[in-house]
TrEMBL record:
Cellular localization per UniProt: Cell membrane
Keyword Hydrolase assigned: no
SMART domains the record matches: AAA
The name this protein goes by in its record: ABC transporter domain-containing protein
PANTHER family: ABC TRANSPORTER ATP-BINDING PROTEIN (PTHR42711), ABC TRANSPORTER ATP-BINDING PROTEIN NATA (PTHR42711:SF5)
InterPro entries documented for this protein: AAA+_ATPase, ABC_transporter-like_ATP-bd, ABC_transporter-like_CS, ABC_transporter_ATP-binding, P-loop_NTPase
Principal location: membrane
Annotated GO CC locations: plasma membrane
Length: 308
């Protein structure tokens, strides 16, 4: 059953077309990821689904209802975590939870939700006193106070340290196990690959691919990548001539070889280094990822798109 259906959604700001006809569906009980660099149109798309922005054209259906006609009903069943959230500066978390809970007819028990998100020892603090990970757990708890069936998360782990990010992932996986449907945006390839049942890759306002992460990765026909850094500039053409190497590219100080025979290519690379006047270091062999899918489809990395 589809919880969300989006058809040919567009959004323009005068002459700038931010979202260029995206279409996708989100199924009940899954985590669906919108993966793409900053400026790709992820947040604009999400804000249109949340009713915060008016689409220029296209159709949005949530819980089988057209968004424009059923917005109030849809909002009762949806939770939202914005990319940036702020709360009353001098109120304690306990007071904020009580306040927001009073807005809804259907509401979760504050004690239970505090325990679930490990907020019990923090209820006497203000929002400003929380760490990044604690803030995100609290914001997620707020979004679930009215027991929604669907939650929108916009870059939920941006700025978090690896430990806090992992903890947040564990929470999302447990929520999915409870039957919650989650639509999240992210520019972290690892996050999309670990969390998402299905993912749509978005670039320059368009969806360039969608499906299960493993299916998208396998569609490349690429087994591995060999990455390394060099003490001196390397002629990329020499690397591409190595047996087993399909392509080679330079990304700032890192060289990236795409290979269908990693053992052969690695051996040849090490032999090549003996003839090379410099040294290679930080040598790594990696399995193909969603980042490779993005690179293959767009011709640039997520980081390059962000820097542009």
């Amino acid at each position: 059953m589809n919880i969300i259906e989006v058809k040919n959604l567009k959004k323009s700001y005068r002459k700038i077309e931010a979202v260029k006809g995206v279409s996708f569906e989100v199924k009940q009980g899954e985590i669906f990821g919108l993966l793409g660099p900053n400026g790709a149109g992820k947040t604009t798309t999400l804000e249109m689904l949340e009713g915060l922005r008016q689409p220029s054209s296209g159709r949005i259906k949530i819980f089988g209802e057209n968004l424009e006609q059923g917005l109030s009903v849809i909002h009762e069943r949806c939770g939202v975590v914005l990319q940036h959230s702020g709360y009353f500066e001098y109120l304690q978390l306990r007071e904020i939870l009580t306040l927001f809970s009073s807005f809804y007819k259907r509401r979760a028990d504050i004690a239970e939700i505090s325990e679930k998100f490990e907020l019990g020892d923090l209820l006497g603090r203000t929002f400003a006193e929380l760490s990044g990970g604690q803030r995100q757990r609290f914001v997620l708890a707020i979004s679930l106070l009215h027991k929604p069936d669907l939650v929108f998360l916009d870059e939920p782990t941006i700025g978090l340290d690896p430990a806090a990010r992992q903890k947040f992932w564990d929470i999302l996986i447990s929520l999915r196990a409870e039957g919650l449907t989650i639509l999240l945006t992210t520019h972290y390839m690892e996050e999309a690959q670990i969390l998402s049942d299905r993912v749509a890759i978005i670039d320059d306002g368009r969806i360039v691919a969608s499906g299960q992460p493993v299916t998208l990765i396998n569609s490349l026909g690429v087994v591995s990548r060999i990455q390394f850094m060099s003490s001196k500039p390397v002629n990329v053409g020499e690397l591409e001539a190595l047996p087993g190497v399909l392509s080679a590219r330079r990304d700032r100080y890192t060289y990236d070889l795409e290979t269908e025979a990693p053992e052969v290519s690695l051996r040849e690379l090490l032999d090549w280094e003996k003839r090379y006047s410099g040294k290679i270091f930080n040598l790594q062999v990696k399995q193909a990822t969603l980042g490779d899918v993005f690179l293959k489809l767009t011709g640039h990395t997520l980081r390059e798109r962000h820097q542009a």
